[in-house]
Design a protein that fits this description.
It is built from 5 helices and 5 strands; from the N terminus they run H-H-H-H-H-E-E-E-E-E. It has 2 domains: 140 residues, no CATH class; 71 residues, OB fold (Dihydrolipoamide Acetyltransferase, E2P) (Beta Barrel). Helix 2 packs across helix 3 and helix 3 crosses helix 4. The longest helix is centred in the middle third of the chain and has 34 residues. It is an alpha+beta fold and 216 residues long. It is elongated. The chain has a 5-stranded mixed beta barrel.
């Protein structure tokens, strides 16, 4: 093992370090997810209309929410592009592609280009896999259109004003905390704001308003 490592060029050592580190973190994340560990998204709120940025939680995106009501715990959607999990997925695809094709592709530029494309493709594949799993779970356990309306909760990722973009909220339905994409007709709602659900737009997107807007 030591001889193999010392025989590698500096470039290959860097690639293998990225690959092995991302693989180890990916395995840890997967184990935590499937045993039901409640872990944060690690998302960075990218609200380009303002300067707000959500906190970085060094956790596992798409963790299973704790549910004491007996319902099936919800799996996060994983649709925030800048998350710790997505970074791991990118480097996982990037690293393994680079080390596996290093002998076949002699051009460093082409090798890096292929590795970057595969890394990005893996990120989006995992994001939409989580979105699909989340929508299937939500539609299979509750009727969002009737159960969500009137529920209250908190903004998880900033919701831009006047339906100019989506944020995320966490609300309590049937004693279970669930996460949804969210829009608002009013002013932007920053992370941590209290909200009430006005209506369900679709199975995984809600129209919400700030709690303060309800005060007469």
């Amino acid at each position: 093992m030591i001889e193999w490592w010392t025989s590698l060029s500096l470039f290959m050592k860097i690639l293998w370090a990225i690959t092995l580190a991302s693989s180890l973190i990916f395995i840890i994340q997967s184990v935590m997810t499937f045993i039901g560990a409640d872990a944060g998204d690690g998302g960075i709120d990218t609200d380009f209309g303002g300067a707000d940025a959500g906190g970085f939680d060094a956790g596992v995106d798409g963790g299973l929410d704790a549910d004491t009501s007996g319902d099936v715990p919800e799996m996060g959607s994983g649709l925030n592009l800048l998350t710790f999990r997505n970074a791991v997925n990118f480097f996982l695809g990037f690293g393994w592609t680079a080390v596996l094709f290093a002998d076949q592709i002699k051009s460093t530029f082409l090798l890096m280009l292929l590795a970057i494309v595969v890394g990005i493709a893996l990120v989006f594949a995992v994001m939409y896999l989580f979105k699909w799993l989340n929508s299937m779970q939500q539609t299979g356990t509750i009727n969002v259109f009737t159960a969500a309306t009137g529920c209250t909760g908190k903004v998880y990722l900033t919701i831009p004003a006047a339906r100019s973009g989506e944020g995320k909220v966490q609300i309590t339905i049937n004693n279970s905390v669930r996460e949804f994409d969210a829009l608002t007709d009013g002013e932007a709602l920053p992370t941590g704001s209290s909200i009430r659900v006005v209506e369900a737009i679709d199975a995984h997107t809600l129209l919400v308003e700030g709690q303060e807007s309800l005060i007469v």
